[in-house]
């Protein structure tokens, strides 16, 4: 890598542009992480009464940390791996990415945008944010496409380093991820509600994890060679491992062909693909590295450049263990991905430190540099362990502390520990940014000492132009007119009407999310959504009914009974409430009560009700269980 940076000034400048974007994204995501950690910490989280503030911060934290930071680092590595001429296409890719990130930030300053906590790629429900995300991903795709030709040429040489193969395979995996997104859009259409974003992101998001694993393995080989002073393993052995890590993504087209994109089978297939295909190759490489380092002796183990590699490996292993323990939509899920995501981030941080001299800067040293990887790595281990503990207690993910019903000491201990770990990790991430900025300020960056500034001018002009275009689009957004009072009669509404409208919009959004999560059997997430709906609309019988079904899914039949009874008290003709009440009472072994509720359902239902036959069968079964002759007092039709 250093040879490329020293010999090719144009490549150095282009790679620096990508890494500067990555550093900016990491800095911003760290700022939002402070809000996320505080909102989930007991006692401190009581000050965060706005769920939208927490969820918007979570969207931006994840989007910047996992999407922008990771993929900008990937594009920088592709640039270094290809090492070809920095063509105008590659500069255009960088301009697209910068413009995309700027556009993603626009909704923060112009009105509220609903946060959509879709897995893998959470978004703000704003056309400008979505356009910016599309631009950024387009820049990443263009960067990979412009790099692959030169990269393949270098791989044909006898002395091609293994990390270049990992970079090439990651570009292929990225192409499959983008193809998966196109397939999802063509099959499911553009999202009409928040649940639609989950459908579009599920397949591509899972494939994207293989991109990160391939690049993680590539960086591990570089860091391992630096620490050991020799090759980590024979080139063919490393090439075989990288191919093993890449091959599973070839199953993605088959999954799209076999199952509808909005089906449970589709979700389960991609979950199984990642669960069984993403970690074995990386685990084998981790074992090899640990074995090599163990044989190298204490001097290597204690070397400052070795510690980040060790912590990265341990975080990855910890994340995989927690992933194997996932059983529902609890905080065990973020425990898993904080381990694996932290492993990739720490590896990129370590590589960043080691590449600084090749960019023309001096070696950065001092206590802050030595302690930063330890602070970040240990903090993430504590955070992941505490989230796993709270997940074992049943704490749902993506939820404010004030929204969690669990109120016993173990919960406070687990989430308090998570707050401590999160604080250490955030401090470690911020310290990395401070360390890099410190060295950038101390010396004049070589990347700006170019003989010809035309590529940078092209990038700046393209970025400014695309950003202005997003601003013009935003100016035409009808919802903006409604908020600012320009060009829309609705803007003349008084404050109370405006608040009522926003409340109705949130009710509709939360209700749609809850229904989608209920259909996906994500009962904890559904319960959280309907809990918020009931806060805003306590007299909404449909919300009580759906909350009842979520409680049945969680096997909390006594709580489910209360919600169904509340629905019937609000609206005695709420038919599905009686069906749910019967199921809840059956779960409580109150068959007499279940019979009465189901008879009410049959009496109120229409003759063509599709569930009528199931209701009659349930009556037959319960009467038999009570030792009665089935069919007595059985309603003959819906009326």
Summarize the structure.
With 639 residues, this protein is mainly alpha-helical. Among the domains are: 1-160; 162-303, Four Helix Bundle (Hemerythrin (Met), subunit A) (Up-down Bundle); 502-625, Tetratricopeptide repeat domain (Serine Threonine Protein Phosphatase 5, Tetratricopeptide repeat, Alpha Horseshoe). The protein has helices at 2-7, 9-39, 51-82, 88-105, 127-155, 162-188, 194-228, 235-246, 252-258, 264-277, 280-296, 298-301, 306-324, 332-355, 367-392, 409-442, 454-475, 478-484, 495-519, 523-536, 541-553, 557-570, 575-587, 591-604, 612-625; strands at 114-116, 123-125.
Structural class: mainly alpha
pLDDT < 50 stretches: 43-51, 400-408, 445-456, 470-496
By oligomeric state, this entry counts as single chain
Give the helices and strands as they follow along the chain: HHHHEEHHHHHHHHHHHHHHHHHHHHH
Tell me the span between the first and last alpha carbons.
78 Å
Rg value = 27 Å
For the biggest sheet, the summary is:
2 strands, antiparallel
Indicate the mean pLDDT.
80
Number of helices: 25
Tell how many strands the DSSP assignment holds.
2
What does this structure look like?
This protein has 639 residues and is an all-alpha fold. Among the domains are: 1-160; 162-303, Four Helix Bundle (Hemerythrin (Met), subunit A) (Up-down Bundle); 502-625, Alpha Horseshoe (Serine Threonine Protein Phosphatase 5, Tetratricopeptide repeat). It contains 25 helices and two strands. It has helices spanning 2-7, 9-39, 51-82, 88-105, 127-155, 162-188, 194-228, 235-246, 252-258, 264-277, 280-296, 298-301, 306-324, 332-355, 367-392, 409-442, 454-475, 478-484, 495-519, 523-536, 541-553, 557-570, 575-587, 591-604, 612-625, and strands at residues 114-116, 123-125. The chain has a two-stranded antiparallel ribbon. The radius of gyration is 27 Å and the shape is elongated. It starts with a helix and ends in a 14-residue tail after the last helix. The model is unreliable at 43-51, 400-408, 445-456 and 470-496 (pLDDT under 50).
